Amino acid sequence: MNAPQSPGNTKVEQAKLLIDGQWVESKTNEWRDIVNPATQEVLARVPFATAEEVDAAVAAAQRAFKTWRDTPIGARMRIMLKLQALIREHTKRIAQVLSAEQGKTLADAEGDIFRGLEVVEHAASIGTLQMGEFAENVAGGVDTYTLRQPIGVCAGITPFNFPAMIPLWMFPMAIVCGNTFVLKPSEQDPLSTLLLVELALEAGVPAGVLNVVHGGKQVVDTICTHPDIKAISFVGSTEVGTHVYNLASQHGKRVQSMMGAKNHAVVLPDANRTQTVNALVGAAFGAAGQRCMATSVAVLVGKAREWLPDIKDAASKLKVNAGCEPGTDVGPVVSKRAKERVLGLIESGIKEGATLELDGRGVKVPGYEQGNFVGPTLFSGVRTEMQVYTQEIFGPVLVTLEVDTLDEAIALVNANPFGNGTGLFTQSGAAARKFQSEIDIGQVGINIPIPVPVPFFSFTGSRGSKLGDLGPYGKQVVQFYTQTKTVTARWFDDDSVNDGVNTTISLR
Ligand code: NAD
After folding, report:
1. Best substitution site from 32, 119, 186, 212 to test ligand 1's pocket, by max atoms within 8 Å of Cβ?
2. Atom 36, ligand 1: which residue's CA is nearest?
3. Selection from 295, 363, 296 nearest residue 328 by Cα
4. What digits encode the pLDDT tens for the residues 221-275?
C-alpha cells in the first residue's frame, strides 16, 4: 500500500510532533523506523523527542489549560460530536494505515477504531457525566455542593497493539473534562494514532489542548517526572507499567497503569461445544494473539478435555496471511523481535515437556516471505511452572491445562499473577454465578471470549494487570481526570438575624 499521508497531505517520511497546534519536525538525533510487519517496508521514521521538545509540549498544554478549563461544556461536547463523525468518515483510510503499520487484518483494524470511536461518542455526553452533587439545607440556610473540576495537564502513554482504540480511551475523555493533554503513542506504530489526532484538530480541539511527543523510555521518564503534569494514563506491559506507576506516583501524580495479561478461558463440559471451540480459537489467534484480552490459556474441565481435537482442528484451518489480504485470519506479529520472542517461548514449551499439538513456527506466506508470521500454535499437557504458562507470550499460542472441577479451575486462575480477563463457558447459571463471584479478575465473560466492556462501564483489571484505583473510560475515568471540590455556602439577607459568634465546629 501507499505510504500514509501526513497532516498536510504530503508523503510522511518523518512522524511529526504536535506542539501548540503546530506539526513540527523533531530536532533529535535518535530515530526509529516504522516497519510494515508483513513486508519489512519502512513506512516512515519516528523521532525520539528531546527533553526540550517534551518540555515545550507540556508548556503549551499548561498555557492552553488556562482558557480551555473554562470553555463551556456544550462547546467541548460539540467537538466530540464532530470528532466521532470525522472518525466514522475516515475509518477505512485509517484502518489501512493501521493494518500496514501494525499487521492486523483490515476488519480488525476497523474494529480497533470502532472500539475507540465508542469512547468518543460517550465523551459527547460529558454534560451529565461531569455533574456535581447538591444538598440543600445541610444546616439552617446552608447548602453543600460539589464541583468536578479538571486537574490540568494530563498525559497518555500507549502500547502498539491498539494504536487507535487506546489513544481514544485517553485523550477524548481527558480533554472533554477540561484538561489539556500530552500523548506519547507507541513508537512502533504511531501513524494511525497521528491520523486520529489530526481529526481531533479538524474537529476543533484548540492549539495546545492536545499535544503529541514520540519516543521511548527517556521520553516516558521525562513525562513521569515532569512537575507540570498532574495525571498519567499508561497502557502496556506489566514491567513498564509498574515502572511508570512507581516513578510517576513518587512524583506526586495520579496514575492508572493498565498492564499485561494471561487470560484463561475455563471450559465446562456442559457448554455448547461448537460455539465454545469457535470462541476460543477466535480469541486465542485473532490479531495474532496480540490483544491484552486474548485468550492465551484454555482450562478444560472434566470431560471438556476431550474437546482438544476440535480446538486443534479449528485452529489449523485459520488462514495466515498479510492483514491487507482478503480472508486473512491471522496476520504477522508486530516485529522481528516479537517473532523471535514468541519462537523462543514455543521452544521453551517443547523443552519443558508440553505437547506441541499444532506448530506454527514454519509457516510460509507466499508473496510475504519476509513477514513476521507465526501460525496458530497449540500446546497441551501444560503445567503451571512452564514458561509458556508463566509468561505473557503475546503471539498466536494457546496453551491448555486440564482439571477435574470448577473449584480447581477457579483456584488455578486466581493463583496466576495476572488478572486482566477471563471467560467461563457453560450452560449452568449456578456455575456462572459462582465463577463471577469467586474469580479475582477484572473482566469476566460468560460465554463471551473477549469481554471488553463498552464505554459507559469502565475497563478494569486486577492484581498484576492493573495499578491505580480507576480504570480508563466510563464513569471511573471522569473521576480520574477531575478533582472534586465541595462548597458549603450560606447567603445572608440584609435583614437576617445576628447569630452571634460561634466558636464550635458545628453548622447551625
Ligand atoms: P510496552 O510496555 O513495551 O510499551 C508501552 C509504552 O511504554 C510504549 O509507549 C513504549 O514506548 C513505552 N516504553 C517501552 N519501554 C519502556 C521503558 N523501559 N520505560 C518507559 N517506557 C517504556 O508494551 P507494548 O509491547 O507496546 O504493548 C503490549 C503490552 O501491553 C502487553 O503486555 C499487553 O498485555 C499490554 N496491554 C494491556 C492492556 C490493558 O488494558 N491491560 C491493553 C493493551 C495492551
Report:
1. 186
2. 236
3. 363
4. 999 999 999 999 999 999 999 999 999 999 999 999 999 999 999 999 999 999 9
Contacts of 197 (CB under 8 A, 6+ apart): 18, 167, 171, 183, 210, 212
How far is ligand 1, taken at its centre, from the CA of residue 319, in Å? 28
Among residues 232, 235, 171, the alpha carbon closest in space to that of 203 is found at 171
Residues having CB within 6 Å of any atom of ligand 1: 157-162, 184, 186-187, 216-217, 220, 235-237, 240, 243, 258-261, 292, 392, 394, 420, 459, 461, 465
Question: How many angstroms separate the alpha carbon of residue 50 from the centre of ligand 1?
Answer: 21
Q: What is the whole-number distance in angstroms between the Cα of residue 70 and the centre of ligand 1?
A: 34
CA proximity to 166, closest of 224, 117, 133? 117
How many alpha carbons lie under 13 Å from residue 413 in its C-beta half-sphere? 33
Predicted confidence band of residue 463 (pLDDT cuts 50, 70, 90): very high
User: In this structure, what C-alpha cell is assigned to residue 197?
Assistant: 489526532
Q: What percent of the chain has pLDDT over 70?
A: 97
Mutate to test the pocket of ligand 1, among 54, 220, 465 (most ligand atoms within 8 A of CB): 220
CB 148 within 8 A of CB 483: yes
Asked if 7 contacts 14 with a C-beta cutoff of 8 angstroms, the reply is no
In our burial notation (b when 16+ CB lie closer than 10 A, e otherwise), range 44-70 reads bebbbbbeebbbbbbbbbbebbeebee
Model confidence, pTM: 0.95
The rounded Å distance from CA 420 to ligand 1 centre is: 14
Average pLDDT (172-190) is 98
Question: Per the structure block, which three cell numbers stand in for 224?
Answer: 513521569
| Mean pLDDT, range 11-35, rounded to an integer | 93
